[in-house]
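Many introductory courses stop at the sequence. We go one step further.
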Amino acid sequence: MNCWKSINLRKEYNPSRLMLISLTFIIITFIFSFLVFSLYYNEVTYAELSMLKTFGFLMLLYPVHTLLHIIPLWFVGVRIKADFKFNRRQKFPSIMMKFTKPVGRNFYVGAMLFPTLFINFASFLGAITFPPYMYYFLLVFSFNTGLAVYDFIYLKQLSGAPRECFIEQNKNGIDILLKQPI
């Protein structure tokens, strides 16, 4: 297979710039979603959770989001290795996923969109079902959208790739591969 394009987000985008874009999406998404839901549920008495539970849910969102990337690939039969790394400079643990064989573009796009669609649908459903806890569900929705910014950037890069390409992960990002002509 020939490499059509290599995508490395750290080289193409500054990590601090990506973090700023992600935080901007979190804030904008929360403001707009809360405004829409508060107009619909204008006479609701909001319930309170402790700050510890709120931070606990938000800290669990990153591993759940990452594991939801893996589920569609498992159904296709791709073996995935997950490494949990804790770097003292980053202050937060990171989960590195690596699949062992190249994956088709459509399956990879589905795997990238699955956590965003699943968690956002569940949080919208929770906000509609339990209006007193609406802002907690919208907080999860907005944080998940902030996490999905990285996925959307990858999807933007993949949108120009040929349909019959394959995606392979390397230590710096992803490679878009094409079959060699015979």
